Amino acid sequence: MASLTRTLPASWYRSSPLYQLERRAVFIKAWYLLGPVTRFMRVGEKVEYEIAQVKVTACRMSGKPRDIKVFDENTGMDFKSYITETGLLFSTISDDAPSFDEFFPNLKPLIGTVDFTRLPYRRSIKYEGNFNWKTMVDGYQECLHCQYTHPSFSVYYPPTFYTVYNHENFSQHVADPKKADDGLFLYFFPNCTLNVYGGGMSSFRVCPTEKPGVTRMEFDYYHIETGDKFEEYFKFVRQVAMEDYELCEKAQENLERGVYAEGILNPVKESGVAHYQQRVLDLVCKQRETEVRFDAGDARESGSDSSEMIVAPQLVDPASS
Ligand SMILES: [Fe+2]
């Protein structure tokens, strides 16, 4: 029997040095969905982001549809950014990221089928929660919890047909293959999502803070309607978001207690979790290897004992060994 996929260790959800390693290995080298171009309609209006402690500003420079600049306000330097054919703006947070096509091979055919600019921007909200960024992404990447956590959502999007298709740096969730323009959920590794359901569209970012147990959630909402019809949609999707929020805080409490070390993932129903966790694991291990080798080289050059130079976080939960 093939071995079952295990989760990341619980210690990875509560360690500051591990988060700093994730930051260097994953976040600094990634691309981020800032939103559809309809988020940036007013010329000169600055839309500000903070991703993994890097401040990013996006600003429409003129009335031309694709004239949006993404830059570091302190230095004035541009970040690499990319607007897709169907109007999604992505950005990096450092020059260490590869090209858009290298980071997201195979994304264009998928997002080329949906017009993401048909729904106007309506509202943004953000708030902090007491959970690690991966606790929220774990929940997003599976729908096993949907039936009991989201009773109102499950009525419209029953988990019967729910399917996740994983690609290198994104996952596509389809609630019902017969309704391609609704019930479409996209996860962009590591921490952005785009959700077309309930008649509207939302995009959220799961922003890690320097505290591994605290994450800032940022949501942007898009809908054709204003007034009561928008409020009805907003109430529905906020209900789902708050149900996830409560679930994450409870899950994090368990991760913090030190009783649970790691678990086994359902190969069918949790393939999205397994996929993104494997990406994190691979990138973190590769980064650590590079840094240890680099530190050892430095130590050799200076003639000191390399074992004293290497200060790396523990990658294995002591409780599991
Ligand atoms: Fe959920």
UniProtKB/TrEMBL annotation:
UniProt cross-references to InterPro entries, sorted A to Z: Rieske_2Fe-2S_sf (IPR036922), Ring_hydroxy_dOase_asu_C_dom (IPR015879), Rng_hydr_dOase-A (IPR001663)
Domain of life of the native organism: Eukaryota
EC number: 1.14.15.7
PANTHER family: CHOLINE MONOOXYGENASE, CHLOROPLASTIC
Protein purpose: Catalyzes the first step of the osmoprotectant glycine betaine synthesis.
Record-stated family: Belongs to the choline monooxygenase family.
Protein's name in the database: Choline monooxygenase, chloroplastic
